[in-house]
UniProtKB/TrEMBL annotation:
GO cellular component, one term: plasma membrane
One Pfam family hit: ABC_tran
Predominant subcellular localization, coarse grouping: membrane
Species of origin: Halorubrum trueperi
Subcellular location as annotated: Cell membrane
Topological relation to the membrane, as annotated: Peripheral membrane protein
CDD domains cross-referenced by the UniProt entry: ABC_NikE_OppD_transporters
Name used for this protein in its record: ABC transporter ATP-binding protein
Residue segments, region Disordered: 326-352
Record keywords: ATP-binding, Cell membrane, Membrane, Nucleotide-binding, Transport
Bias type Basic and acidic residues, positions: 326-344
Length: 352
């Protein structure tokens, strides 16, 4: 049974330029003990999806349609009071992008973890909560004595680990981890990911791991959802997505982290820029950057389709995956497409 079930979620930000369709019809699900990796370039809508789940959107952000069900209850329909009392932190916790911002600077880190534990478990004594906080610190490779330090006394990596401790302290059913290891060195990154997965096994926690780094997801995730321009363009089993994806965008992303695949050694970035989410228009949002775009890709928005490898993909040409994989592994494919596009823009300019 799915713990979290997101169906056709649309979350928009109101701006002077118009509504930014940051999540534009996102459907996803997560079950207990599953780790779902949410990947995609900056601005693709990953954080928006996570913040929508626990209703932590900024003032100009609105869930305009769709549902987010937790254990069958639609979080989007709950009063904010109920979300705060019953869901946020207790059932679903979030490790934010910048851990330092997650802590209150005037209280010690330990005091904040102890308070979180006691706020959700009325019968836990302070001493018990304290020993649990210390245990978590140790699990995460932190010196247990440091729980009496203030947040500013921690380095970035330590604060990040302490944030993981805080997020896990209340044994939530779901943890939303937003780039939990960005800006940390590789050794600490590995250690954090390892600790998270150990604790996850112990408590059967489900996790949504947001990252732009394909190598992080390859190590930790069971399922991967690839976001582009506010939509999930490809989702399925992590191994399959990493080794044999179908969407050209995933193929492009994979090229940027060549160490995760044996057959592509070159580091190739995807030329072009992400779409404008104020008025994305008809057609595939990736078409302007896609080396394989045909006429219909510009005109018809591809709908999600499931293939026999279990992948659900939004691409008109996903059934030609073998050819796409072969061609996408060549630098020239991306370079030529970008050059042709540039030429078309020049040719198509206003007539003098
Ligand atoms: N408060 C806001 N007001 C207006 N637009 C916003 C706001 N927050 C985010 N956006 C826009 O919504 C889109 C999705 O942003 P989001 O932060 O969800 O993406 P992301 O994939 O998590 O990126 P990153 O990895 O940089 O966090 C982007 O175009 C972003 O500029």
């Amino acid at each position: 049974m799915n713990l979290i079930e997101i169906d056709n979620l649309k979350t928009y930000y109101r701006t002077e330029a118009g509504d930014v369709a940051a999540a534009d019809g996102v459907s996803l699900s997560v079950s207990p003990n599953e780790t779902l990796g949410l990947v995609g370039e900056s601005g693709s809508g990953k954080t928006t999806v996570a913040k929508s789940i626990i209703r932590l959107l900024p003032d100009n952000g609105d869930i305009v349609s769709g549902t987010v069900k937790y254990n069958g209850d639609d979080i989007t329909e709950m009063s904010m009071k109920d979300v705060q009392r019953k869901i946020r932190w207790k059932e679903i916790s979030m490790i934010p992008q910048n851990a330092m911002n997650g802590f209150d600077p005037v209280h010690t880190v330990g005091a904040q973890i102890i308070e979180a534990i006691r706020a959700h478990e009325d019968d836990t004594t302070k001493a018990n909560a304290r020993s649990r906080a210390k245990e978590l610190f140790e699990d995460l490779g932190l010196d247990a004595e440091r729980i009496d330090d203030y947040p500013h006394q921690f380095s970035g990596g330590m604060a990040q680990r302490a944030m993981v401790a805080l997020a896990l302290a209340v044994n939530p059913a779901v943890v939303l981890a937003d780039e939990p290891t960005t800006a940390l060195d590789v050794v600490i990154q590995d250690r954090i990911l390892e600790s998270i997965s150990e604790l996850q096994d112990e408590y059967d926690t489900a996790m949504i791991m947001i990252t732009h780094d394909m190598s992080v997801v390859s190590e930790t995730c069971d399922t991967i959802a690839v976001m582009y321009g506010g939509r999930v363009v490809e989702v399925g089993d992590a191994d399959t997505i990493i080794k044999n994806p179908r969407h050209p965008y995933t193929l492009g992303l994979r090229n940027a982290f060549p160490d995760i695949t044996a057959d592509s050694q070159e580091l190739i970035s995807i030329p072009g820029t992400p779409p404008n989410l104020v008025d994305p228009g008809e057609g595939c949002r990736f078409a302007p950057r896609c080396p394989f775009a045909e006429e219909r890709c510009w005109e018809e928005t591809p709908q999600p389709e499931e293939y026999d490898d279990g992948l659900v993909v939004e691409c008109h040409r996903a059934d030609e995956a073998e050819m796409l994989r072969e061609e996408a592994s060549k630098r020239d494919t991306w370079k030529q497409a970008a050059e042709e596009r540039e030429q078309a823009v020049t040719d198509g300019g206003p007539d003098e």
